[in-house]
Amino acid sequence: QVQLVESGGGLVQPGGSLNLSCAASGSEFRFHRMGWYRQAPGEERELVALISNGGKINYGDAVKGRFTITSDIAANTVYLQMTTLKPEDTAVYYCNSRQWLPNRDDWGQGTQVTVSS
């Protein structure tokens, strides 16, 4: 099994910064690709950022240039540094782990990020 535990969400003013972390554990966990998705009320879940064990990174268009994803593979942890936050960044942020052979897709419980004055 795989467990993903997110931390770091909260309330921040527009233009501010916030950092999220996601720690993975479990006997079946292997760091293949991890990252973040988010879902705002009434919206579909969307890509925020992904990072592979080879260092390949993908960002969603809405966050390019403002968010940075990093990883500590030895610690099975990924981080999301969010800067220049906007009200439209308000959402529940979910950590995701994707593994292949065998294939599995795991999700964290989500952490709320609210950008408001």
Based on CA inertia axes, which overall geometry fits? Answer: globular
- Binned strand content: over 45%
> Helix- and strand-based class?
mainly beta
Q: What Rg do the Cα atoms give?
A: 14 Å
Mean pLDDT across every amino acid position:
96
SSE topology sketch:
Layout: E1 3-7, E2 10-12, E3 18-25, E4 33-39, E5 46-52, E6 57-59, E7 67-72, E8 77-82, E9 91-99, E10 104-107, E11 111-115
Parallel strand pairs: 2-11
Antiparallel strand pairs: 1-3, 3-8, 4-5, 4-9, 5-6, 7-8, 9-10, 9-11
Summarize this, please?
With 117 residues, this protein is an all-beta fold. The protein is built from no helices and eleven strands.
Describe the structure.
With 117 residues, the chain is an all-beta fold. Helices cover 0% and strands 54% of the residues. It contains no helices and 11 strands. The protein has strands spanning 3-7, 10-12, 18-25, 33-39, 46-52, 57-59, 67-72, 77-82, 91-99, 104-107, 111-115. The strands form 2 sheets. Strands 2, 4, 5, 6, 9, 10 and 11 form a 7-stranded mixed β-sheet that branches. The chain is globular and about 45 Å long. It starts with a strand and ends with a strand. The model has no long low-confidence stretch (mean pLDDT 96).
Could you name the key traits of this structure?
0% helix, single chain, 4-stranded antiparallel beta sheet, mainly beta
